[in-house]
Amino acid sequence: MFSKTCEYGLRAVIYIAQQAKTNEKIGITAIADAIDSPQAFTAKILQQLTKNNIVQSIKGPFGGFYIDEQNLQNISLNNIVQVLEGNRIYTGCGLGLHQCNAEKPCPLHFKFIEIRENLKKMLENTTLLELSSDKSITDYYLKN
Question: Which SUPFAM superfamilies does UniProt cross-reference here (predicted)?
Answer without folding.
Answer: Winged helix' DNA-binding domain
